[in-house]
From TrEMBL:
Location of the protein in the cell: Cell membrane
Major subcellular location class: membrane
Spans traversing the lipid bilayer: 31-51, 71-93, 99-121, 128-147, 153-171, 180-199, 205-223, 230-248
Organism: Loktanella salsilacus
Protein name: Probable membrane transporter protein
Amino acid sequence: MLEISILALAGLTAGLLNAVAGGGTFISFPALIYVGVPPVSASATATLAALPGYVTSAWGFRQDMQAEGALSLNAIVFIGVIGSIIGALLLIVTPGDTFLWVVPWLLLLATILFALGPFILRHLRQRGAGKVGAVGSAFAIVTVSIYGGYFNGGLGIMLLATFGFIGYVNLHGMNGLKSVLSAVVSLVSALAFISAGLIEWEQALIMAVSSAIGGYLGARLTRRIVQTDLLRYFVTSIGATMALAFFLR
């Protein structure tokens, strides 16, 4: 019952965070490690478990999404599929010990990007966001999708920064598209992980249900949150703590 409670709470919190600000994997991935799931399987299971939360969050933002920049929404989704396949295949062939060595660096990178997210978006806009062509936009999307297919942590803020780079300015629309592309990346990656036998189904089911609830609630609450900086500080502190814990492991 303790493990079920930990996984359910972690899934709910991850769903909320992914919808509101991103960083949910900072909660779900360590929780899976804590209950005894091997590192590579924990990453794969966290990716699958996040999928329902992304879907319900995208539904909550469905009226805000529209195409901006040089690429259509369909093109962005297609490119995301290609990148996520590459990332998932990279994870499948990564030995467990190697992945355990890589994880703290990925967590550290994701934490830094998450903490600097608003500054990155502001800088990108000042440097000419919206002027990036189709080729540059496609390269940016496929790169972040490869990362997301390999490791879901910090995917949300990377997508927001990427959308800002390729010309998006509507934050609610960006959040909705972030959820859609995260769902696509997670789905494609999860199919690859399922075929490779990396999913811990019992833990995934518990997290998936609670993540779906958290994702929908997070999308509904986003417009009511005033102190988003406090939430960002909270998520950043969790990411930094998790990165340090894995470095010391």
